[in-house]
Design brief:
Radius of gyration of chain B: 33 Å
Largest interface: A-B, 43 and 42 residues
Number of strands of chain A: 4
Strand content of chain B: 5-15%
Number of helices of chain A: 13
Number of strands of chain B: 9
Oligomer: heterodimer
Distance between the termini of chain A: 36 Å
Strand content of chain A: under 5%
Helix content of chain A: over 70%
Strand order of the largest sheet of chain A: 1-4
Structural class of chain A: mainly alpha
Chain lengths: 369, 572
């Protein structure tokens, strides 16, 4: 198959799936064919798919295994969560104009840094700005001193760990252990309403399609080429005169933003954000999705996020005790036996078929003397 | 009862008997019995007063009974008079079991059965107000005179902090006969604290001077109160003396905090070192990112738990629907306490075996793919955690420390927990052991050869697969040893390893990968930094976060850690 044909098939597939997600599913939901619960669940999967793409952009395309994506994901979630908490107004348990947990901690008025979050545009801007800034500073420090490979993983893990420790503290005034929950309104609409959830699902699907197309375009540009070159031989890239650190920093910040937007879409759909979403374990779980789906492709992470999470939803209910065995086992098996993930299965079968055909041809056709 | 406590008691007892030779002849019970029979009553007071300074446990109960008219004189059939106490439920004739005051044993009738007497038929021993005063003096000093040194000191301190002038006499009486230096110090503090409340400024001044000389931490609150009083009363010389005493206490406190922090930092550093040393081998030398290293620690800790239960009453487990019971040896005393000695090698072995099994099944395929070894071992770690949960339950299990690890020393108000002292010593031993293995044995030579250049070593005929396996086993075994120690310091639960894994990696990375001395330096550095920051910021979590940030910044300055392993290889 020539490249343009593949491109066309890919384009058609994306168009079909995008229509399904953005138009058909919500329509079926409003018609009552798909239950609200199912749609909500799929909305969650799509947010995870965004997180998985951000992991893959770094790991699969640039060779940087970041264990900090859960941090950016939850930071995005927290930023929107703060706005959602403000929108509760005085409908909380204590019927005061500030969030309940602050009253619980003995505050009578809003801390200064909370005030601007009453405005949605500000909160939305912070979803981009705060994780972006954290990624920029950390990435600058890490790439400047040429920390790479496993050291990068360990440091990002420590960053996430530090972040979760910080958010677990009550003095942080970010809800501590319990985080934010019990949201009421978003942009004037009741968050718990089926129609609001449907709108959020559509927003997530649109974002996912846009991110997918954007990343797909990026990987075809020269920048995408350098990105993969860094993955395969960073020193050669350096010696060819490219400032690898700059490229890596750009990708790192971009990935952080994708994760953060995913997190911001996730929070109103799931209805809660707390520091346990921020632990290194969650980052690693996102890495499992990518590994299972197939890294180094853009379809892989999406497929992986949906498949693993659908499996998780089912297994945690059917076999709650065995689920972690299953997740751990899946991890080992994919790494050892299926490095290309699910999306590589068709190619593997094709290769196996071709090899068998070759072998058949070799045995059936007598070798000329 | 452990050896130390017994020695202290013996010493204290010896001290007491030296002070009161008379009591060696007559027990406290005998003296009270004698007092009950003594005539005339003045004799009684004298006899009771001779109990002053005795710490016998029977005194409190007997004297209380006496005061409540519950001490009786029984006239035996042969005419002899015996002081008795009545115990037990009354039966239908209102009679109760009678016990002799002088021995605490029941009175036996001629038939050999324990005698039952009726309270209303006996005469209660009388007591005058002078006698009650004498009893009170004895009782006041009772706690101050117990042979148990720790109890005695705490009783003295309680009296001192109460600052009750009435108790001054008792303390001073005790001061005359006290011979243990630490108790003497406590007495001086307590007396000075009480005198601080004295009306006369001279006594106050003297007590402030005494407190300044003693500079005990406990006196700080009383000194602050005294300072406020003196300022309110506009008494400059007293206020100055109080300030001086407070300063002395403060500077003492600073010293104590400094050395306390130093000690805690060292002990945390040792824990980090023990925990990270195994990782320094598997990660540093072999290049395997073993995310299941924490679970190797947990394997060691759970092994200790199982060994402890085998020495005790056994252990019932019901994993995966099966249930079985590991029989216990029901040992007690020193044999039970020695379980830890057996647990150490066993936890090393079990963790090493788990490590070797992991190396054979998973890691051996991933030596060239470090990032993927990270992922696969994380899968193994999830697997093991869930395994612990299924076998041992998701709650923490109880590992009790043997008494030789659970006590502490207090030296100049700095508390040295024996388990922490032990960890510091043990960390030193492990480092020495690992260094000897790596530099002085043929296995160490092979390990170093394979780690430097796997292919070259294979060409020279080294069985690299076997060396890899053994090295990984060694690293995992060290983690198991660390687990045995952590079981003495903190909780043992399925996620025990998770709380150490980030710290472990940090220690190894900061030290310089592939460099054991670097790991030692960084472990102590991080331990000390963590404890000092906790002391300065007064918040453990903030301290930890600051350390993480400091590490990230440190790696800016030295990206390859404290000690860099020099290599000509570009990717090295």
């Amino acid at each position: 198959m020539s490249a343009p044909t593949t491109r066309r098939i890919e384009f058609i597939a994306v168009a079909v799936i995008a229509t399904l997600l953005i138009v058909v599913f919500p329509l079926l939901n409003s018609a009552g064919v798909i239950s609200n619960f199912t749609l909500n669940l799929w909305g969650k999967y799509l947010c995870y798919a965004l997180l998985a793409i951000s992991v893959d952009l770094l790991w699969g395309y640039t060779g940087l295994l970041s264990l900090g994506q859960a941090l950016f994901f939850s930071l995005g979630g927290y930023m929107l969560g703060m706005h959602l908490m403000r929108m509760i107004g005085d409908l909380g348990q204590y019927h005061k104009p500030i969030p309940d947990f602050l009253i619980f901690l003995g505050w009578t008025e809003l801390p200064t840094f909370w005030k601007p979050f009453s405005s949605f545009p500000f909160a939305a801007a912070m979803v981009i700005l705060l994780p972006g800034l954290v990624a920029l500073v950390f990435g600058f420090l890490a790439f400047r001193s040429r920390i790479k490979g496993v050291y990068f993983s360990i440091l990002t893990q420590a960053l996430t760990y530090g972040g979760s420790l910080m958010f677990f503290r009550n003095d942080m005034l970010m809800g501590g252990n319990n985080g934010f929950t019990d949201y009421k309104f978003l942009l004037g609409a009741d968050v718990r309403d089926a129609s609001t959830q449907r709108a959020l699902f559509i927003a997530t699907a649109v974002t996912l399609v846009l991110v997918y197309l954007g990343c797909s375009w990026l990987s075809r540009t020269k920048l995408g080429l350098i990105q993969r070159a860094i993955r395969d031989g960073e020193n050669r890239v350096l010696f060819s005169g490219y400032a690898a650190a700059g490229f890596k920093l750009f990708i790192f910040v971009l990935a952080a933003l994708i994760a953060s937007v995913g997190g911001a879409l996730y929070v109103p759909q799931v209805g809660i954000i707390n520091p346990s979403e921020m632990t290194p374990d969650k980052s690693l779980e996102a890495v499992v999705w990518v590994a299972v789906g197939g890294r180094g492709t853009l379809v892989g992470p999406v497929v992986g996020a949906i498949v693993v999470n659908a499996l998780k939803s089912w297994a945690t209910r059917a076999y709650p005790d065995l689920w972690l065995f299953f997740l751990g086992g899946m991890f080992v098996i994919v790494v050892l036996f299926l490095p290309g993930g699910i999306v590589s299965i068709p190619d593997r079968i094709k290769m196996w078929w071709a090899r068998r055909a070759d072998a058949n041809a070799a045995t059936s056709a007598p070798v000329a003397p | 009862m452990n050896f130390f406590n017994r020695t202290v008691r013996l010493l204290a007892f010896a001290a007491l008997t030296l002070g009161f030779v008379a009591h060696a002849a007559d027990s406290a019970r005998a003296i009270i019995a004698k007092a009950a029979l003594a005539e005339p009553p003045a004799q009684r007071i004298e006899t009771i007063t001779s109990l002053l300074g005795s710490g016998d446990e029977s005194i409190a109960g007997l004297l209380a009974a006496w005061k409540e008219d519950a001490l009786f004189v029984y006239t035996a059939p042969d005419g002899s008079k015996i002081p008795v106490q009545l115990f037990g439920d009354k039966d239908d004739q209102d009679s109760q079991t009678a016990t002799r005051v002088d021995s605490g044993k029941p009175i036996l009738s001629s038939a050999g059965k324990s005698l039952r007497l009726v309270a209303s038929e006996l005469t209660a021993v009388e007591h005058t107000s002078a006698l009650r005063r004498a009893m009170k003096a004895v009782l006041d000093l009772l706690d101050l005179s117990t042979p148990d040194l720790k109890k005695r000191i705490s009783a003295i301190q309680t009296l001192g902090f109460a600052q009750d002038a009435e108790k001054l006499a008792a303390l001073q009486a005790r001061q005359k006969i006290e011979s243990v230096p630490s108790a003497q110090l406590a007495l001086r503090e307590a007396i000075a604290l009480i005198e601080l409340k004295d009306a006369s400024p001279e006594v106050k001044l003297a007590s402030l001077k005494e407190l300044a000389a003693l500079h005990t931490i406990g006196s700080a609150d009383a000194l602050k109160a005294a300072l406020a009083d003196a300022e309110a009363a506009n008494h400059p010389s007293l206020a100055a003396a109080a300030r001086l005493a407070l300063n002395a206490v403060d500077s003492h406190l600073t010293t104590v905090n400094f050395f306390g922090t130093l000690f805690r930092g060292l002990s945390l550093g040792s824990i980090l070192l023990v925990v990270a040393l195994g990782l320094a081998i598997t990660f540093g030398l072999m290049g395997v990112i073993n995310m299941a290293h924490g679970e190797m620690i947990a394997v060691g800790a759970y092994t200790t738990y199982v060994v402890q239960n085998i020495f005790g009453t056994g252990l019932a487990l019901s994993p995966f629907g099966f249930s079985f019971h590991i029989p216990g040896m029901n040992t007690g005393g020193w044999l039970y306490e020695s379980y830890f000695i057996f647990a150490l090698p066993l936890s090393f072995l079990s963790a090493a075996l788990v490590g070797i099994a992991m190396e054979r099944t998973v890691i051996q395929w991933l030596y060239r793919r470090p990032l993927e070894s990270l992922l696969a071992t994380w899968g193994v770690s999830l697997f093991l955690q869930q395994f612990f949960r299924r076998v041992f339950g998701s709650n923490n299990v109880q590992v009790s420390s043997p008494s030789y690890l659970s006590d502490n020393w207090t030296f100049h108000d700095i508390i040295f927990g024996w388990n922490r002292v032990f960890v510091i010593g043990f960390a030193g031993l492990i480092v020495l052991g690992v260094w000897l293995v790596l530099t002085r044995t043929s296995l160490g030579l092979l390990i170093r050869a394979v780690m430097q250049n796997r292919n070259m070593a294979a060409c020279m005929g080294v069985r690299t697969e076997r060396v890899n396996m053994l090295t990984f086993g060694l690293g995992s075994g060290l983690a198991g040893l660390a687990g045995a120690f952590l079981s003495q310091i903190g909780n043992v639960g399925p996620s025990l390893g998770q709380s150490y894994i980030v710290d472990c990696f940090m220690t190894v990375v900061v030290g310089g990968v592939g460099n054991l001395p670097g790991t030692v330096v960084s472990a102590f550095g991080i331990g000390l930094a963590d404890q000092s920051l906790q002391q300065i910021l007064l918040n453990p979590v903030l301290g930890k976060i600051t350390v993480l940030v400091a590490i990230i910044l440190f790696l800016q300055w030295r990206p390859a850690g404290i000690f860099v392993t020099k290599s000509r290889s570009l990717e090295g």
